[in-house]
Amino acid sequence: MGNRGGALHSRNRQIVRPYASRRWITCLLEFKGRRRSVMSPGHYTELFFLDEAVALAAGHRPCAECRRERFNAFKDAWNRSSDAPAPDPPSADEIDLELHRWRIDRRKGKVTWRAALNSLPDGCFVQIGDSSYLVRGDSLLLWSPAGYLEKRLRPNDLTVDVLTPEPVVRCIRQGYIPEIHKSALML
Fold it and tell me: Could you report the per-residue pLDDT of 110-164, keeping only the tens digit for each?
């Protein structure tokens, strides 16, 4: 589960905006016994993802409260991926500021970028035609909201649109391993 910094919905539970702030996070479904009604008026809008790899591709990062261990691993990988790693890892605000530039463009469209498919690490998402795929080993796994549907061989000579923001890809290259839905293991 995740959110984009606040309420994206109206009192009638209609989505009225794509985000409320640059704090886009992924959270645990259960944490300290907290209970919520989905899309409660005046509260943040809950977003649900198949897995962490999808959330990362959407531009989210691990929550610093309920997913503290994952957040620390992410920010350590973020720091290692920098041209000049700092003595102290970056704060959530610093990560969010940089990551936000890689999420949406000025027209509020998703930012994508081009890369050689064989240069991308496991856990990234790419778009080929009208379909989205998870990069995993020598394969591409076709994504659907319900799970990964099929596995196909990853071509070596293809340049693709990358859906995962470039700074997140750098984190994955530096050892951050996105959590993947169990359906990926069944293919």
Answer: 999 999 999 999 999 999 999 999 999 999 999 999 999 999 999 989 999 999 9
Q: How far apart are CA 103 and CA 92, in angstroms?
A: 16
Question: pTM of this prediction?
Answer: 0.94
Domain map (residue ranges) of the chain: 2-186
